[in-house]
Design a protein that fits this description.
The complex is a heterodimer of chains A (313) and B (241). By secondary structure, chain A is an alpha/beta fold. A 6-stranded mixed beta sheet of chain A has the order 6-7-8-3-9-10, sandwiched between helices. In chain A, strands 2-1-4-5 form a 4-stranded antiparallel beta sheet. In chain A, helix 3 packs parallel to helix 5 and helix 5 runs parallel beside helix 6. The longest helix of chain A has 19 residues. Chain A is elongated and about 80 Å long. The two termini of chain A are 43 Å apart. In chain B, helix 5 runs antiparallel to helix 6. In chain B, 44% of the residues are buried. Chain B starts with a helix and ends with a helix. Chain B has one domain. With 241 residues, chain B is an all-alpha fold. Classes of the chains: A alpha/beta (313), B mainly alpha (241). Chains A and B meet through helix 2 and helix 3 of A and helix 1 and helix 4 of B.
């Protein structure tokens, strides 16, 4: 059984009348890059603050490495490195001095600072004051600081927020390599779905404080709705052929037929479909499978989650 | 705990906190030089020591407490580093205790520097004027006692300012409270009930009535320790959104 590094069990957090987290349960397996997805205001940062013991939820349990975040706070946080919201650094200090502040508190060996600066490729810039850094450099120093304790769990809250395209690419590559280089499990929140799709092995989808999905990317892919699109004429003849493969499931628009959901996916199945159409005397001008990306799956999930409330309203 | 103290002290490097800490002794020094060099001020060491202490206790000390604690807290509030600092695997109360100790050490150092300035200023004034002579001798022991007692009686003000500065993200809250307190203190300097008003406690150390002076030292010291302790417990337990 895979070890769980971070676990939320039925966590509910309220700010007055607003329910920020509603019975949130999720688990982050060891070695994963876990993408914690949701639109702005979904409750991602609140969940992360709870995980760091900064806010105590009204009910539920959060554990890191098996230790309860509120009852065994020091043990739980000893194996965590985090960047929450912005890379919160002291602008009057240099990059190295920012690391030194944390190193002093934690009692980490001094040599570890050089190691983490090398990992984030900031060794040559660490002598400069953070106030003079670009956002990308701040993110890197923040990441270096989070890595100081050789964390088992690295929590990154919107790590690419505000970065330019080159900075986003660099940060994404850096994060992708981190599990191999450091052995850390990554828990990374983002509202940029395409960001997570590229690097995550697991995802959690959060909307209005509720978890819509929690599992591996493969499990999510199984829920993805692919579309098979066929352009064939004459349409009536093509329809007869296509109905043999998926009776009544095709949506016709002129000479275009679309099948959503349970589609023929293998090259052999698609070739067989094409052959059947050609044998029936149809001219096939297009036949392609569109795999839904994470974004459209996310939108489908969030829409279906939102609709009961809309109905109720 | 020593490690956390070192880290808190390191955070002050190149910050405005150190500039603000240097301001009161420089002001007392410049004022003292001008007064003595002009030949129109007191010509006794005792009077000069007392007037330097009065300026410190009445105005500069409360203002220093406002400025230093607010700027120290803004080091965390400004770049939102609380989430990092309080997410570290150390007891939160130790972090706040370290911050309180650093604030007190800074105030003590500023007190010491002001005391030194109250000696250095007349010496410089004498050298500059060439004709002014100050009667008597600078009494180090008296100055030490005076400034220590002012610091002890000011502990309550420092604790209140520190708590407000740590609690509120906005600079305006502790600064308004501090300026308001100092303003009321100026307006009610000689009020009988002034000994109960935290911002007036330091200046009451200079009162001619020894009982009044002892009362404000005791109250300021005990009140300050209690407020610091309660604030550290409360800040350690509160949610940090």
């Amino acid at each position: 059984m895979t070890e769980t590094v971070l676990r939320f069990d039925d966590v509910t957090l309220r700010y007055g009348r607003l329910t920020a987290l509603d019975q949130v349960s999720l688990n982050v397996p060891a070695g994963a890059i876990y993408g914690f997805l949701g639109p702005n205001g979904a409750g991602k940062t609140s969940a992360i603050r709870c995980a760091m013991g900064l806010i105590r939820p009204q009910s539920g349990q959060i554990s890191i490495g098996g230790a309860d975040v509120f009852r065994q706070r020091r043990r739980a946080l000893a194996s965590v490195g985090a960047i929450i919201e912005t890379p919160a650094l002291f602008p009057n200090l240099t990059g190295r001095e920012n690391l030194e502040v944390t190193r002093q508190v934690l009692g980490t060996p001094r040599a570890r600072m050089d190691e983490v600066l090398e990992i984030v490729d900031m060794a040559h810039e660490a002598h400069r004051r953070v106030g003079q850094y670009s956002l990308g450099m701040r993110q890197r120093i923040g990441l270096a600081r989070a890595l100081l304790t050789r964390p088992k769990l690295l929590i990154l809250d919107e790590p690419t927020n505000g970065l330019d395209p080159a900075g986003i690419r660099d940060m994404r590559e850096l994060i992708r390599d981190l599990p191999q280089r450091t052995g850390a499990t990554i828990f990374m929140s983002s509202h940029l779905l395409s960001e997570v799709e590229h690097i995550a092995s697991h995802v959690g989808l959060l909307q209005n404080g509720r978890v819509l999905f929690n599992g591996s990317l493969k499990e999510l892919a199984d829920q993805q709705q692919a579309r098979l699109i066929v352009d064939a004429e004459p349409a009536e003849q093509a329809e007869n052929v296509l109905d043999r493969f998926a009776p009544g499931a095709w949506v016709r628009d002129g000479a275009r037929f679309t099948l959503t959901g349970d589609c023929p996916r293998t090259p052999q199945d698609i070739a067989a479909l094409n052959a059947a159409l050609v044998e029936a005397g149809c001219a096939v001008s297009a036949l392609h499978l569109e795999e839904a990306d994470l974004e459209s799956t996310f939108l489908t999930l969030t829409r279906s989650a939102a609709s009961p409330q809309e109905d109720a309203a | 705990m020593i490690r956390i103290l070192t880290a808190e002290a390191l955070k002050l490097r190149r910050s405005l906190v150190l500039l603000v800490a240097a301001t009161p002794p420089v002001m007392v020094y410049l004022l003292g030089v001008l007064v003595v060099a002009s030949g129109e001020g007191p010509d006794e060491w005792l009077m000069l020591t007392m007037s330097g202490a009065a300026v410190w206790a009445f105005f500069l000390m409360p203002m220093s407490a406002i400025g230093l604690t607010a700027l120290m807290a803004q080091l965390e509030h400004g770049p939102s580093t609380w989430t990092h600092t309080l997410g570290l695997p150390v007891p939160r109360w130790q972090i706040f205790l370290a911050k309180a100790v650093v604030a007190l050490l800074l105030m003590a150092l500023v007190s010491l520097a002001v005391a030194f300035a109250s000696w250095a200023a007349p010496m410089t004034g004498m050298l500059l004027s060439g004709s002014v002579e100050i009667q008597g001798q600078f009494d180090i022991e008296r100055a030490w006692n005076l400034y220590s007692r002012i610091l002890m009686s000011g502990l309550l003000v420092i604790a209140i300012q520190w708590t407000l500065a740590m609690r509120f993200r906005s600079f305006a809250v502790p600064v308004s409270a501090g300026i308001g307190g100092t303003f009321v203190a100026v307006a009610a300097t000689s009020a009988d009930k002034g000994i109960y008003f935290p911002w007036l406690m330091p200046v009451n150390v200079l009162a001619s009535d020894p009982e009044r002076a002892e009362f404000v030292i005791r109250t300021g010291l005990i009140g300050g320790v209690l407020v610091f302790a309660a604030a550290i417990v409360w800040l350690s337990r509160k949610d940090w959104r």
